Fold:
Amino acid sequence: MSNVVLEARNIQKQFNDGKASIEVIKDLSIKVHAGEFVSIVGASGSGKSTLLHILGGLDLPSKGQVLLNGERFDHLSEAERGYLRNQNLGFVYQFHHLLPEFTALENVAMPLMLRSDANYKQVKLQAEKLLDRVGLSHRLTHTPGELSGGERQRVALARALVTQPKLMMADEPTGNLDRKTAQQIFVLLKELQQELKMSMLIVTHDEQLARSADQTLLMQDGMWADPKV
Ligand SMILES: Nc1ncnc2c1ncn2[C@@H]1O[C@H](COP(=O)(O)OP(=O)(O)O)[C@@H](O)[C@H]1O
Ligand SMILES: [Mg+2]
Structure:
């Protein structure tokens, strides 16, 4: 069995606004292996978020294929794509994207509650376990508005990992935090990767985070500056 968790082949993406069409991704391929940490760096506007959304099955490429755990996103219905993501992928955004009216515990429990076989008691235990692991066992019933930026990002991490995904994707997870808090989240990310034996694909401006990756890819003009695939 192949140990490739995520593979993208010759991805292209253009956006059309009626008149003009901009080509954000020209030709990108990537492989992420089991347990591997890949970082993507590049100037603002170079298309990193666009690429991550495509790799995470949140958007489809104009051309090319993405395979998560060996399954092609473009061969699946939207519901099937959602299922494949829920089973294999944890996603962390720069701005946490937590649901404001729900508590930390409810936010973290959400990806498991969406499963058809969800058992509320077990889900609650698993969510509590993850929140405890990210150092927030004393904040279970707080809503996002009652938490600090660093705490919100910890909740977002717990939510991404509650399903024990094979791969965690993060779009500038420390980009909106002060230096000290960013450093703490960085350490936590590295620890969790080891503990959960998962792969990580992280877009970051944080040099320390990027440098500590097994593979660092620089995005430039919609391509890798130094093709590695
Ligand atoms: N939905 C969209 N429609 C039109 N243009 C978009 C859309 N999403 C992103 N873009 C454009 O694609 C380029 C890359 O954006 P993005 O992927 O957010 O870059 P990065 O994350 O590297 O800062 C930008 O020029 C942006 O304006
Ligand atoms: Mg971005």
User: Anything to note?
Assistant: The mean pLDDT is 93. The first strand starts at residue 4 and ends at 16.
